[in-house]
């Protein structure tokens, strides 16, 4: 979860911005069984479609979309991550485009993509209305905005989130998306690490030191259960005459 929005500019993402190498370890551990992508495909199938990964970070998910999509574009506000993402996909076929931009200023024309995917980036509930409007602008009629975020109602990861983010109210966030016309699918998935040291390092960039140590002590082995919410909103198709 990101801190409060600054007066101007993108919302800082303190984990991947400051520790991209550790966040890479986290990305490899997440969704070990592919449950999030399976649920996402059910509600926003990207096969033979044009996909925008909004807040793509180092581009970890871009190639997964490219396996079946017609085209893939990543948009990321943080210049060092833009460079990393471009390096990552430089030799990928089909080509993937990575652009500098933000959720509030997407550098794409109107009606240019079929799926906007945003995972744990920008869309954290109240305050993200400008990004929703901008996503609707770039979506073609019938296209889907899919917001994938952590489900803080699922313990223990959710318990640790709420311990550190006392201002965060999962019910309020979900009510916001519901009021904005989003559908909701909940997914339970598993993060699995190569070692206890890798797990500890990831917990250390996601939580305060005290909470990270508690989380590590409460998690034996190499895996932990994590809940996700997938909020989807479809762009209007319009009248058929």
Automatic annotation (TrEMBL):
Signal peptide bounds: none
Keywords associated with the record: Methyltransferase, Transferase
BP terms from Gene Ontology: methylation
Keyword Transferase: yes
GO molecular function, one term: methyltransferase activity
EC primary class: transferase
Domain (Methyltransferase type) ranges: 52-146
Keyword Metal-binding annotated: no
EC number: 2.1.1.-
Database matches in Pfam families: Methyltransf_11 (PF08241)
Name of this chain's protein: Class I SAM-dependent methyltransferase
Organism (species): Rhodococcus kronopolitis
């Amino acid at each position: 979860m990101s801190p409060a929005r600054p007066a101007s500019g993108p919302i800082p993402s303190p984990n991947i911005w400051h520790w991209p190498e550790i966040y890479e370890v986290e990305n490899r551990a997440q969704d070990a069984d592919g449950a999030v992508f399976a649920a996402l495909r059910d509600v926003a199938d990207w096969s033979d479609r044009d996909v925008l990964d909004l807040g793509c970070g180092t581009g970890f998910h871009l190639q997964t979309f490219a396996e079946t999509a017609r085209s893939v574009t990543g948009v990321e506000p943080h210049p060092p991550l833009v460079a990393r993402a471009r390096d990552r996909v430089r030799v990928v076929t089909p080509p993937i485009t990575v652009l500098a931009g933000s959720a509030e200023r997407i550098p794409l024309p109107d009606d240019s993509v079929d799926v906007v995917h945003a995972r744990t980036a920008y869309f954290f509930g109240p305050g993200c209305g400008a990004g929703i409007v901008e996503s609707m602008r770039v979506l073609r009629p019938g296209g889907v905005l899919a917001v994938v975020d952590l489900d803080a109602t699922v313990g223990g990861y959710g318990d640790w989130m709420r311990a550190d983010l006392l201002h965060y109210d999962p019910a309020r966030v979900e009510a916001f998306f519901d009021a904005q016309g989003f559908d909701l699918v909940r997914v339970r998935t598993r993060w699995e690490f190569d070692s206890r040291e890798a797990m500890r390092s990831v917990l250390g960039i996601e939580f305060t030191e005290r909470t990270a140590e508690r989380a590590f002590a409460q998690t034996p082995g190499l895996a932990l259960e994590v809940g996700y919410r997938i909020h989807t909103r479809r762009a209007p198709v319009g009248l058929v005459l």
